[in-house]
TrEMBL record:
GO cellular component: cytosol
Provenance organism: Rivibacter subsaxonicus
Superkingdom per UniProt: Bacteria
PANTHER family from the UniProt entry: NADH-SPECIFIC METHYLGLYOXAL REDUCTASE-RELATED, OXIDOREDUCTASE YDHF
Pfam families: Aldo_ket_red
Span of domain NADP-dependent oxidoreductase: 8-278
Name of the featured protein: Putative oxidoreductase
Length: 291
């Protein structure tokens, strides 16, 4: 069973850069929830292991009713060298049972919640043992510490390796009109096959769709401007609508503190592009027409 996440997910990657008080962070969370964005994307390493704590500080000011409406997504499996983790000697990956358990329990403490809705392995680990991961995840589920499990940035073969050991609920991938690879390397095909909704990070190409200056970025922006003008929406909304047009029903991650930008993403949920418009953007990005 897939997790019940909101149609747009609010990313928290840069929360440590916002310079906000706990009350200001809570106000942002409340505004997101008022708009219907109830799912929040984290990773233990964000902000040098600080963002989950910042979010948790805000949640401790929230009412129980608000806390119960949230779905927390977080990722683990990367070991950063950080003062917050003095035992880490070098950056590496770790999907051992001990590390998964320690990461989940640390995230629960930092966030101040009792359960993670969706836990993702952040990056593929070449030393991953599917049976060991499955055993660790099953134990954490039985203890009520997490509900669903998935992966992030995994190729179809890497995801299949885990899928045979335990069902995956998500694959969080880079996907945007400037990053077409998931359309052609089997990643989105696999999501359709498995019946899971991919999560799309960097849906605006790290902002390059809106302000990039190279030839490809300008071509794609021109195509999106045509869609935006036709439907009376922003270029960002047109870009989100292009992502949402895929039948796997991707869940875009906004990655912004700007509430108006989150509204632009939500507006795309009511805009279904026709095929020619979708392929116009694809062609602008690929630099050639379909074969």
């Amino acid at each position: 069973m897939s997790p019940q996440l909101s149609p747009v997910v609010a990313g928290t990657w840069r929360m440590h850069e916002w310079g906000w008080s706990p009350a200001e962070r809570l106000a942002w969370i409340e505004q997101c929830v008022e708009l219907g964005v109830t799912s929040f994307d984290h990773a233990d390493i964000y902000g040098g292991y600080s963002v989950e704590t910042l979010f948790g500080e805000a949640l401790r000011l929230a009412t129980p009713a608000l806390r119960q409406r949230l779905q927390i997504v977080t990722k683990c499996g990367i070991r950063l060298v950080s003062p917050a983790r003095p035992l880490h000697r070098l950056k590496s990956y770790d999907t051992s049972a001990a590390h998964l358990r320690a990461s989940v329990e640390a995230s629960l403490r930092a966030l101040g919640v009792e359960r993670i809705e969706l836990l993702l392995i952040h990056r593929p680990d070449p030393l991953l043992d599917p049976a060991e991961v499955a055993g660790a995840i099953d134990a954490l589920r039985r203890e009520g510490k997490l509900a669903h499990f998935g992966v992030s940035n995994h190729t179809p073969s890497q995801a299949s390796l885990l899928q045979r050991a335990l069902p995956l609920a998500a694959n969080q991938i880079e996907f945007s009109p400037l990053h077409l690879q998931p359309l052609h390397d089997g990643t989105l095909d696999q999501c359709l096959d498995l019946g899971i909704r991919p999560m799309a990070w960097s849906p605006l190409g790290g902002g390059r769709l809106l302000n990039g200056h190279d030839e490809r970025e300008r071509r794609v922006r021109d195509a999106l401007e045509r869609i935006a003008a036709e439907h009376g929406v922003s270029i960002a909304t047109a870009a989100y609508a292009w992502i949402l047009r895929h039948p796997s029903r991707p869940l875009p991650i906004t990655g912004t503190r700007r509430i108006d930008a989150i509204r632009e993403a939500l507006a795309a949920t009511s805009l279904r592009l026709d095929r020619e418009s979708w392929f116009d953007v694809w062609q602008a990005s690929a630099g050639h027409e379909v074969a």
